[in-house]
Design brief:
The protein has 295 residues and is an alpha/beta fold. It has a domain of 204 residues: 3-Layer(aba) Sandwich (Rossmann fold). It is built from nine helices and twelve strands. The strands form four sheets. The protein has a six-stranded parallel beta sheet, with helices on both faces. The protein has a two-stranded parallel sheet with strand order 6-9. Strands 7-12 form a two-stranded parallel sheet. Helix 1 links the parallel strand 1 and strand 2. Helix 2 runs parallel beside helix 4 and helix 6 packs across helix 8.
Length: 295
């Protein structure tokens, strides 16, 4: 089923790839609003935007993503991640739009040993995680039949700063790199996530996708250390130059989840296949990432 789409946070890495995916198909009208065009924390502005564009699907890629800064500025982060999501959900409820809310693995405690299911208990340990969980709850409460929460993690893409581009840069200036090997997760290409968001939105419009929570991360799992070694291999660099270390070597204001592996069972209920293995995606993504970093 076709219908117009509105993307918030369209200037970000995921928003850019999502717009590109929709525009490449050309089946639906897609409008992208960046942070300068729409402040989702302003309820009146959100209502005006939805009234003006009347989208069938809204994808909220706008977020406070400065994880460490949120520890000292939780109220500011909540204004965007919690209140902003609520404003969008309430506006969608009035106009009849479906809302896809992009969320995070940080809503979990990060101490698991097997992939977190979509209905696993949440227990955020950081201000960022708490504010994103507030956004999830607002969407699911206001839109019980039309709200979709898509949790993701370890995102990288050509359209912004991210771990892969940083490692490409550091490989050229560092003889060796110490990278943490005690945090496990699923590196996820924004192009792959954008594709699944489009598929989910279309399935929602067709009445085939149950509302609720989905996990939008790649298959498989690795550590930041393992991820970096694969990046070095793709660069033609010696992966032995990457050395394992622990999180204790990089203490930050916000605690990082030790285990961020998510399960993907609910995609099949929507008639959509989960995202492919992280390593396969990285290999396909790498030329564009290399070009973006090296100009």
């Amino acid at each position: 089923m076709s219908g117009s789409w509105l993307i918030t946070g369209a200037g970000g890495m995921l928003g850019q790839d999502l717009l590109a995916r929709l525009e490449r198909d050309g089946a639906e009208k897609a409008v992208g609003l960046d942070r300068k065009t729409l402040d989702i924390a302003d309820a009146a502005s959100v209502g005006e935007a939805l009234d003006a564009h009347r989208p069938a699907v809204v994808v909220n890629c706008a977020a406070w993503t400065a994880v460490d800064d949120a520890e000292a500025r939780e109220a500011d982060a909540l204004r965007i991640n919690g209140d902003g999501a609520r404003h969008l959900a309430e506006a969608c409820a009035k106009t009849g739009a479906k809302l896809l809310q992009v969320s995070t693995d940080y809503v979990f405690a990060g101490d698991g040993t097997s992939p977190y299911a979509e209905d696993a208990p949440t227990a955020p340990r950081s201000a960022y995680g708490r504010t994103k969980l507030a956004g999830e709850q607002a969407v699911l409460s206001a839109l019980p039949g039309a709200g979709y929460v898509v949790r993701t993690a370890w995102l990288y893409g050509a359209g912004g700063g991210n771990f892969v581009r940083t490692m490409i840069k550091l490989e050229g200036v560092k003889d060796t790199l110490d990278v943490v090997d005690d945090q496990r997760g699923q590196p996820t290409w924004t192009v792959d996530l954008a594709d699944r968001l489009v598929r989910l939105g279309r399935s929602a419009l067709a009445g085939d996708a149950p509302a609720g929570i989905y996990h939008g991360t790649s298959g498989g799992e690795t550590t930041w250390f393992g991820f970096t070694r694969e990046i070095f291999r793709l660069l033609g660099a010696d992966p032995e130059r990457v050395r394992p270390t622990t999180s204790d070597a990089f203490v930050r204001p916000a605690p990082r989840p030790a285990y961020s592996v998510l399960g993907h069972d609910r995609w099949r209920a929507a008639g959509v296949e989960p995202i492919r293995d992280w390593r396969e995606a990285l290999h396909e993504a790498f030329p564009a990432l290399l070009a973006a970093e090296r100009g």
